[in-house]
Design a protein that fits this description.
It is a single chain. The protein has a single domain, classed as K homology (KH) domain (GMP Synthetase, Chain A, domain 3), CATH 3.30.300.20. Helices cover 50% and strands 22% of the residues.
Length: 109
């Protein structure tokens, strides 16, 4: 269970990362931050991404992973007054939307 501090920091990171991705172009794909999970010591964050369109997903995700240090630096510049340490970021693709679409497709057929 997340503490109140963890949930506040998660929301802060989600909002700021969302703005960073909104201003950046990653292979022409639209990137949405669906969820951020942060460790209890606030030093490690798992960032779940939804990438659209489907055909650009792999290329955009590879570019995001290769530029992880740059994204962390931009994040640090934005949250330097709220956080002492900028957490390490690890990116994951959130496929829950595709999963729910597949379930609906199976139920309707």
């Amino acid at each position: 269970m997340e503490s109140r501090r963890q949930s506040k920091v998660s929301r802060l990171l989600q909002r700021e990362l969302g703005e960073i991705f909104q201003r950046s172009s990653y292979s022409g794909a639209m990137v949405t931050i669906t969820m951020v999970r942060i460790s209890p010591d606030l030093s490690f964050a798992k960032v779940y991404l939804s990438i659209f369109p489907e055909n650009l997903k792999e290329k955009a995700f590879e570019r995001i992973q290769s530029n992880g240090w740059e994204i962390r630096k931009k994040l640090g510049m934005r949250v330097r007054n709220q956080l002492r340490i900028v957490p390490e970021l690890v990116f994951f693709i959130d496929d829950s939307f595709e999963y729910s679409e597949r379930i609906d497709e199976l139920l309707n057929s």
